[in-house]
Amino acid sequence: MHADDNEGGAFEQWWLATVGNLLVWARLRVHDSGIAEILDNDARTETFDSADSAHAALLDADFRAWDGLDADDAAQLGLDLDAITPPDGIDGSDADELRALMTQRLPSRH
């Protein structure tokens, strides 16, 4: 879901990037107020004044929206969409556990 699809309401969206054989997740959370937060792979949260600003930051860092990936996109990234899912149950209470969920090793591409 994109910010303009939700007309300013709260939503959460997962984004991903690949670095070598590492899959890196980021969680975008937009609040009813329009303030956006990105939870990064180091379990840090960065705050933005809007969803558009947060989207721009994610795109600048070569992240792609998980819900926007199709089979061709996944193949270009070396991903099997059926084999990966965004981290689940992240509440930020344990930073070490959270960091472990935000990155995943991918099989080597040959």
Describe the structure.
The protein has about 110 residues and is an alpha+beta fold. It has one domain. The protein contains three helices and six strands. It has helices at about 50-60, 70-75, 95-100; strands at about 10-20, 20-30, 35-40, 45-50, 65, 105. Strands 1, 2, 3, 4, 5 and 6 form a six-stranded antiparallel sheet that branches. A hairpin with a 5-residue loop joins β2 (about 20-30) and β3 (about 35-40). It is globular, with a radius of gyration of 14 Å. The N and C termini lie far apart (about 35 Å). The model is unreliable at about 1-5 (pLDDT under 50).
**Percent of sequence in beta strands:** 25-35%
The helix-and-strand class reads alpha+beta
Distance between the termini: 34 Å
Can you give the helix content as a percent range? Answer: 10-25%
Total domains: 1
Overall pLDDT level: 85
Order of helices and strands: EEEEHEHHE
> What is the tally of beta strands?
6
Quaternary structure of the protein: single chain
What Rg do the Cα atoms give?
A: 14 Å
DSSP helical segment count? 3
Spans where pLDDT lies below 50 across 5 or more residues: 1-6
The major beta sheet can be summarized as: 6 strands, antiparallel
**Overall form:** globular
Output the keywords.
single chain; 3 helices; alpha+beta; 6-stranded antiparallel β-sheet; 110 residues; globular
